[in-house]
């Protein structure tokens, strides 16, 4: 019997397996497809919540810990797997913010580097932006990571560990239970038992918990994005305007995101979203009209109330744990969410207060 069984091989599942293995646990990771191929692949990779002052303090606590840890994590993964996650620490420029006062108050309260800058500074940072922006907020420590490459490096790392078993193309079909205790999972590759079972299935976590007659308020929220093949240096940092963003990559590609659509498990792209994303991109960076869109895709985020993830033991079911519901901030919050959960599972002192994320009181019987 393994110590820990994780259902879900996205960035949350992979990082949790890594944290547990580093703590000496025997881990089995089960993924219904290939690891890091759903929202972990489809997102943008900004290492900050969008408009972070608009989130509850519990999100700030996770994000602050994660942002500082990504520097070490990216370097370690590149060294150990020869796959560079491409962490870019160039800052984030947020244009035309209506609630600047709240943003500045949040920054002062949490000692986060965020300042208001004027027009001259905006165009010193990004001279190719659409003319006419008069003020912006500047967050110099915000970075971005190339999430498909982060997923590849995490997958390579966990597959190389002697105390982690990775089962891909393995779908969970049910739970192994005895009374009110979960003993493991039934899958298309047989039954797997463990002392603790963790559901980290992203947008699909609610479907798994429904097998135990539990209602988890996590639902799929579709996001569509596109990417332009642009020359290196057209912009050098994350730029945001009216909830949309541009993210430059090391090779010059510029990502544009994203939509928020409550359409169930539909991952089809649409022409309306394409047109909207394209218009948003040009409203920030008109020169993008000279370069082709090379890809347009959609992914499903695990939407949850207030974007607050569920981390910890499921009430009423011994041996069952959750780490899911990160909504738009899975990559942002993953290092802290998985380290906190590993602390709880391995009975270590937690890095931050775990109570705000506990599933107790937040799940309902079907």
From TrEMBL:
**Record's keyword annotation contains Oxidoreductase:** yes
Question: InterPro entries of this UniProt entry?
Answer: FAD-dep_OxRdtase, FAD/NAD-bd_sf, Gly_oxidase_ThiO
Please state the span of the N-terminal signal peptide per the UniProt entry: none
Q: In which pathway does it act?
A: Cofactor biosynthesis; thiamine diphosphate biosynthesis
Q: What class of enzyme is it?
A: oxidoreductase
One biological process GO term for this chain?
Answer: thiamine biosynthetic process
Question: What Gene Ontology terms describe what this protein does at the molecular function level?
Answer: flavin adenine dinucleotide binding; glycine oxidase activity
Q: Which GO terms describe its cellular component?
A: cytoplasm
Per its UniProt entry, which superkingdom is the organism in?
Answer: Bacteria
* Record-annotated FAD dependent oxidoreductase domain positions: 3-344
Keyword Transcription listed: no
Q: What is its EC number?
A: 1.4.3.19
Q: Which UniProt keywords apply?
A: Oxidoreductase, Thiamine biosynthesis
**The protein's name in its UniProt record:** Glycine oxidase ThiO
- Highest classification ranks of the organism: Bacteria, Pseudomonadati, Pseudomonadota, Gammaproteobacteria, Oceanospirillales
State the encoding gene. thiO
């Amino acid at each position: 019997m393994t110590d820990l069984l994780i259902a879900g091989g996205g960035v949350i599942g992979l990082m949790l397996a890594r944290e547990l293995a580093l703590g000496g646990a025997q881990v089995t990771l089960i993924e219904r497809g290939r690891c890091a191929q759903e929202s972990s692949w489809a997102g943008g990779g900004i290492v900050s919540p969008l408009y972070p002052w608009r989130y509850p303090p519990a999100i700030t606590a996770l994000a602050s810990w994660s942002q500082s840890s990504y520097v070490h994590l990216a370097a370690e993964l590149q060294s150990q797997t020869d796959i560079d996650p491409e962490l870019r620490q160039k800052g984030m420029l947020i244009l035309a913010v209506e609630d600047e006062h709240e943003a500045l108050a949040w920054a002062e309260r949490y000692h986060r580097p965020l300042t208001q800058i004027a027009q001259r500074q905006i165009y010193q940072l990004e001279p190719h932006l659409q003319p006419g922006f008069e003020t912006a907020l500047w967050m110099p420590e915000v970075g971005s990571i190339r999430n498909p490459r982060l997923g590849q490096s995490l997958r390579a790392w966990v597959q190389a560990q002697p105390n982690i078993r990775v089962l891909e193309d393995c779908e969970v079909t049910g739970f192994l239970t005895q009374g009110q205790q979960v003993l493991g999972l039934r899958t298309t590759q047989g039954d797997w038992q463990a002392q603790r079972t963790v559901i980290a299935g992203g947008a699909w976590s609610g479907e798994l918990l429904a097998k135990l007659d539990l209602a988890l308020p996590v639902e799929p929220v579709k996001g569509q994005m596109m990417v332009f093949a642009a020359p290196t240096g057209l912009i050098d940092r994350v730029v945001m305007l009216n909830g949309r963003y541009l993210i430059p990559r090391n090779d010059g590609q510029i990502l544009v995101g994203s939509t928020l659509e409550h359409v169930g498990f539909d991952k089809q792209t649409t022409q309306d979203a394409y047109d909207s994303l394209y218009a948003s991109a040009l409203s920030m960076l008109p020169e993008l009209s000279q370069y082709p869109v090379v890809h347009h895709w959609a992914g499903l985020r695990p939407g949850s109330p207030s974007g607050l993830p569920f981390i910890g033991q499921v009430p009423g079911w011994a041996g069952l744990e959750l780490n899911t519901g990160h909504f738009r901030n899975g990559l942002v919050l993953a290092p802290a969410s998985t380290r906190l959960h590993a602390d709880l599972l391995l009975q270590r002192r937690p890095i931050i207060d775990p109570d705000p994320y506990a599933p107790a009181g937040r799940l309902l019987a079907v």
